[in-house]
Amino acid sequence: MRAEWAKQLSRAFLLLLGVVVVLPALAHGERNQEPFLRMRTAHFYDVKWSADKIAVNDEVVVTGRFRLFEDWPMNLPQPDRVFVGNGTPGPVLARTESYLNGHAAIQSGKLMLDRDYEFKTVLKGRIPGRHHVHPMVNVEGAGPLLGPGSWVEISGDHRDFKLPLTTLDGTKIEDLETWGVANVVRWEGFWLLTALVFAGWWLRRPLLMTRYRALHEGHEAALVTRGDRLWAAAFLTGTVLTVFAGAHWAENRYPRTIPLQAGQFRIDPLPKDEHEINIQVKRATYDVPGRSMKMTLVIHNPLPHPVQMGEFMTAGLRFVNHELPAAMAQVDARYPAELLPRTGLTLHDKAPIAPGETRTVNIEATDAVWETERLTSLLTDPDNRVGGLLFFFDDAGERHIANLSGAIVPVFIGS
Amino acid sequence: MTAPNKPPAEGDFVDIYGVRWSRWAAQLSARLDVIISIIIALAVTAAFHLHFQLLAGDWDFWVDWKDRQYWVTLTPIVAITFPAALQYVLWEKFRIPLGATLSITCLMVGAWIARIFGFHLWSYFPFSLIWPVLMIPGALVLDCVLVLTGNFFFTAVIGGMGFAVLFYPSNWPMLAAYRLPVEIMGTLVSVGDYIGYTFTRTATPEYLRFIERGTLRTFGGHSAWVASAFSGFVCVLTYLLWWHIGMLLSKVTTLPNRWRSMFGMAPDQTAATAPVESHDAR
Question: For residue A194, what are the domain limits?
């Protein structure tokens, strides 16, 4: 009986071990980031991936925009040093170029809150597989802030990967992956061999117990002889001469070198709208059993055109007003389906907001995605606020972006 | 092998370093040399590699961290620790001047194992980004100075300074190729910078690098030599400290067991007469 029970337990353990061992890490734990990091920091929008299937050496270009949110969490440092990166499972893609508002973004720099930036990242397929690719900004002190992620499949063989480069002194580098590596192996191999020869001089003789006993019985002269000292002197001289000869060779081989660069960029944000639609959150609730975010908003339209609400966007989730063609036209076919809730955005008052009008509007964003994206944990946050962007469209189809932020109250009992 | 109940004949003895050993004991000692040497090498590799990763990790991991200031200053200071301690043990107890060469070689082997299996095969980083530093020349100088002077103070001053000063030039033949200038998107960067940029460490942005942002260049333009000299000075002090740590850790000490009675055993008789017995070889 006990043996049977032990057998069953062993099987269960092996099964569990198999599951744990076999399951690969598919993404980067982006759902594990606290909701305030995803809803109130960098809001990525218009994100597009140029391809979802590429071969090794082919490129995928990720473009889009992000807004550093006006209601930036108090517990995070200001974005004084920001790096525009990409979230991938390590260097499975090589980042060959990255731009911010058309300027090179190889270094970091200061960005401004409540302003928009346009990014472009060029990634070259390197390691075959199916990889989750995110745009990302790293803010010093706040860490990586991820945008939406899409799957990119890379086919081919890693051995075919090449990343050539020509330096300013005309040196042609065939592949950055292997550049200088043969020289490293030769030089380190030479010194490893030298160390073994030096050590071999001592190791060929009886070692530990015999030397210990000889030392304590007063036979020190037999342990370190004149020959040993000559050997050490020769090695000392040879080592110093070889080191400086090697450095001299390198200076002649590469006469024009520069130190590692540590500068910062200065990039202005995109121009701001002259008139911004103003949103006041009168009341926001999250219906826990109904998985629905309901908000009562006071909206003021200062524009000279009537506008209609087309989309509520937060943490990469896009609740789109399906009844507004201009809003639906903004949805890229490659945008991750799991971030586009099917129910979309529900408006209780669908009439356009007239120029100069202030109106109270009720909206609902209902979907299980609040749970699957683990955004409901915002209810346990000490700074319990919701943030996102609202996209409005005027009668000409032009888009106007407004910030939405306010306190949120959980509703635990279904109505 | 001599039978245990029969006195050994004259021919069964050998003279090793002026001490008479039975041939059987000498053979046994030689086997123990091999076994203990392997154990020491593995233990030093693991312990030193862990210590080095924790204290100088990123400067050793990445080619775009190997700058002229922090890398040059910190790496020798962190790396002279185990050589100093091991030199004490091997020199003071056995007169073997291999403490530095052994520990640095073990570190290098450990670093290459980690780079090949952990960084390259597991995480896909290319070797051009992750090759480990070379410190064997400095270690050879430390050991050679110890043989020639037989004095730990001179080894600390001459060898410690040499260990730090030789660090940058001994790595320059490998590093220079990664310091060639290149224009990327209209920006001047070194090849090493670009390698670090292109093979992304996802959560490690550019600004996390601790690289040359100081004012050492005011001392003559090239901060590496100023950093080396400062590193050498600290290496001398670190060497002295770790030589004494080696001394402390190799002390054979017997402590009386004060808890025997708790387990129903007779009290330790040594407790009353000799609370702490210490055997120092020096």
Answer: 181-253
